[in-house]
Structures are given as C-alpha cells and as structure tokens.
Amino acid sequence: MTDVEALITRVHRDEWARVVATVARRVGDLDIAEDMAAEAFATAVERWPVDGLPPNPGAWLTTTAHRKAIDRLRRESKREEKHREALMRYDAPSPPGAIDDDRLRLVFTCCHPALAVEARTALTLRMVGGLTVPEIARAFLVEETAMSRRITRAKAKINAARIPYGVPLPEDIPRRVTGVRTVLYLIFNEGYLASRPGRDPVRDDLAAEAIRLTRLVHALLPADGETAGLLALMLLTQARRPARVSADGDLVALGKQDRGAWDRTLIAEGHALVRARLASGEAPGRYQILAAINAVHTAARDIEGTDWSQVVALYDQLVVVDPSPIARLNRAIAVAELDGPQAALTEVDGLPLTGYHAFHATRADLLRKLGRTEESRAAYDRAIGLSLNTAEAAFLRRRRGS
C-alpha cells in the first residue's frame, strides 16, 4: 500500500461519518448523503495520487460530496422543490444553545422515537459509527439481507416522516437521550471488542468516537446522571486498552494485565465522574453502577487487591435495576472471586444464555477451577464456536489448552 492509499484509508476511517452527517444535514436525505460520500471518496482515490493531497482532506471530501449531492438533486424529478428544500436546510440557523456538531445531530436523528429500537441502533451504527452492514448483522445475529432491509426502511421512514436533522428542543431531550445512550454504548462496545472475524480485536476509532459523542451529550445534559455514568464507564474501560492486547495482538485477561500501562488520566477523569454522581445523592441507574464497578477495578493495585465484596454489592444493586441474565452472569464472575467457583457455578447454570459465548466461557473457567477438565474443555469449545472475534477465540483456545 502506497503512502497516499494509506492516507485515504485513514481519512475514510476518520472522516466518513462527518462527511455523511454534514451532507445529510444540508440536503436532508440519508441515501443521497451516503451515496455522495462514497462518490467523493472514489474521486479522492482517483485524483489525490495525481493532484496531490489537499490541505484539509475532510473539508475537500465534504465539499465534493455536497456538490455531487446538489447536482444529483438538480437532475432528479421535482428537482426544483428538492433543491430549494436542500438550500433551506443548509441556510437554516441552529437554535440558540444547540451543539454545533453534525455527527451528534445525526445521532439524535437516527435515534428518533418514530423508529423502532432495532432500527435506531442499526442505523446509527451504520451512519455514525461507520460499521458495515455485515458487521451490524453479526452484532444483531441476523442475516445480512435482513439487516440491509432494516437500515433501508429506517432511512426511508426518516425521509417520509420529514424527521429533522438536529439536536431536539430542550423539552424533548430527556425522553430522547435514553435511546442515544444505548446506541453510543453499543458503538463503544463494538470498538472495545470488534465483532468481525479477522479484524483487529479492538477498534480504537469507534471507541474514541463513542467517547467523543458521549462527551457532547454530557455537555448538553450535565445534570443527567446516566449520561455522566456512561461517560465514566467508557473512560474507565478505555483506560485499560493499552494493556488489554499484547504486542502479538492477543487479548490479555484483566488479572494478567500490566496495570502500570493503564491510562491514569482517563482513570482520574472517570473516578471524578463516579464520585460526583455518588455525592449527588440520587439513586444510580445502570450505567452509573457499571461505572462504579469499573472504578473499583481500576482503583486496585492488582487483581488480588480488588475489593470483591464491594464489586458483588454493586452487582446486587445492578440486578435490581437491570435483572437481565447477562448482568447476573457478570455478578456470578465476581461471586467466584469472593465465595469460590462452586457458588458461582450454581448461579451460572440457571441462566438462559446458552447462545451467548461468554456464558460458556465463564462456565469453562469455573469448571476448570473445580478440576472438571473434560466438562471445561467442552464448554470452551462451545464458547469458541460462538465467539465472533478472532482474537477472543484464540484467547479461549489458549485457556482451553492450559
């Protein structure tokens, strides 16, 4: 790969969502925005190696995509009406106090309550997170064709319902932000552990974008506890990133990570957010409790020094507000550290998670600690078969062989 090709690849990763979001706001059509962004990048592939790199590649791509979009609107039927509407959208001033970030506008648009929850998440992952349809389909465990239809229908509904491209009015934000948080957390999780086989186990671009957008939402709603909790959770999780993957690209378990490599700046910021929420005296929600759990982990000098009784107590709070099987599975992992593997296995075996790889990986670890080798290997095999991440599957194979 030449230097120019490498740059175009990097620019595509960094600027795709920005270009799509800006053009979508200007022309009011997600399909056109996505198509013209793709054409702009195709033009860059042809011209940049010959003409040289523009001083601001992102601005060049946005301008090129916008011009192509206007040209397309002019060529289409009813072009005058569409062109006039596009120009009105482009020239319309933002309301006072609105955050001037096109990607955040697009997040709220994709998370509009007129769309089904599944459509909101899939559309945002595609348009803002930049995931491909196959990646999103794997994350939702559905066929690619079905996911493609879901995204297409969501875009069509936005156009048909004339859903505006913008951050909602202040009185509408509280009921809209729950869906936004859900989507941002899903984007972060895809960055933290990529679901596509053969891809790098961690996608820093997605994790960083989820954190950036969550910071913007937090700035918009500084008193919203769950948004602050989500930001803290992301920061404390991302802080462990430098030690989570070895030099060979292998995943490293929490207990074996070099804690000296953790990002102390992110940890300090995350801890400050957790302390502020505790000082508020308000009952915590799911993200705040998860952030507090991560605060306990990142405060410990080593795995043996972790306050597991506090972790279990926090999970006890979590299963009250989120009694999901996955929350109970994670609680059982903490119980194993506090009360031993048999107590944890008793809780794990009753969970309806037979299609979830982490369930089988947890059972495998517990069975191994109990000396039930053959059962443990069978559980590892099941976890490996269900794992969507190549590096994670390799990690599980090493655990099985140990």
UniProtKB/TrEMBL annotation:
Keyword Transcription regulation appears in the UniProt entry: yes
Q: Where is the RNA polymerase sigma factor 70 region 4 type domain?
A: 108-158
Q: Which organism is it from?
A: Actinokineospora auranticolor
Annotated Gene3D superfamilies: 1.10.1740.10, Winged helix-like DNA-binding domain superfamily/Winged helix DNA-binding domain
| InterPro entries tied to this protein | DUF6596, RNA_pol_sigma-70_dom, RNA_pol_sigma70_r2, RNA_pol_sigma70_r4_t2, RNA_pol_sigma_r2, RNA_pol_sigma_r3/r4-like, TPR-like_helical_dom_sf, WH-like_DNA-bd_sf
A single GO BP term for this record reads: DNA-templated transcription initiation
The alphabetical list of record keywords is: Sigma factor, Transcription, Transcription regulation
Single GO MF descriptor: sigma factor activity
This protein is called RNA polymerase sigma-70 factor (ECF subfamily)
Residue ranges occupied by any RNA polymerase sigma-70 region domain in the UniProt entry: 18-78
Q: Which residues form the DUF6596 domain?
A: 176-276
Q: What stretch or stretches form a coiled coil here?
A: none
Question: Hey, which family's this protein in?
Answer: Belongs to the sigma-70 factor family. ECF subfamily.
Domain of life of the native organism = Bacteria
